[in-house]
């Protein structure tokens, strides 16, 4: 029994059964995906980061913290104490009055970065120009 095939039916049957055509179609799909990936390199990249940190206490900086970290801190501490007493302040009041809060216990941070690839339009011509420049030949001092 013979069947009449038109071209579209024959092509459909050939594409279903031919492993060579399946492999070539896979190559075409791969090339299409590579082309899309290369095109995506020219799109901007946006990065957004956020952070949150909760500490036990506020971060504070007192005169004792500063003076303890200095080699001559003990000498300066006595001088500041004497200056405070001359002005009528106790050491505790001076310490409390000069203590500063550096950061709260809740630290929130965020950043946004945008990277945009720039196409300069042409490759550098410098390697082509350099061989054309005349360079003086080194002189031999031995001759």
Task: Give the termini separation.
Answer: 99 Å
Q: SS-based structural class? A: alpha+beta
* Count of individual beta strands: 4
SS strand fraction = 15-25%
GO molecular function, one term: efflux transmembrane transporter activity
Brief description of this entry?
The chain has 6 helices and 4 strands. It is of the alpha+beta class.
Give descriptors for this structure:
two-stranded antiparallel sheet, rod-shaped, two-stranded antiparallel ribbon, alpha+beta
Description:
The chain has a domain at 9-40. It has six helices and four strands; from the N terminus they run ααββαααββα. It has helices spanning 7-17, 19-40, 63-68, 73-86, 91-98, 126-129; strands spanning 45-54, 59-61, 100-103, 106-115. The termini are far apart. The mean pLDDT is 78.
Q: Helices and strands in order, then pairings?
A:
Layout: H1 7-17, H2 19-40, E1 45-54, E2 59-61, H3 63-68, H4 73-86, H5 91-98, E3 100-103, E4 106-115, H6 126-129
């Amino acid at each position: 029994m013979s069947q009449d095939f038109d071209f579209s039916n024959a092509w459909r049957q050939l594409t279903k059964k031919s492993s060579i055509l399946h492999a070539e179609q896979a190559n075409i799909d791969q090339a299409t995906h590579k082309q899309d990936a290369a095109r995506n390199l020219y799109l901007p990249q946006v990065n957004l980061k956020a952070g949150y940190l909760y500490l036990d206490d506020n971060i504070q900086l007192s005169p004792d913290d500063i003076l303890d970290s200095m080699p001559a801190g003990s000498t300066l501490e006595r001088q500041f104490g004497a200056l405070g007493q001359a002005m009528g302040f106790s050491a505790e009041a001076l310490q409390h009055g000069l203590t500063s809060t550096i950061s709260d216990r809740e630290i929130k941070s965020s950043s946004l970065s945008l990277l945009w690839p720039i196409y300069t339009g042409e490759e550098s011509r410098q390697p082509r120009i350099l061989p054309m420049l005349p360079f003086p030949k080194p002189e031999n001092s031995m001759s």
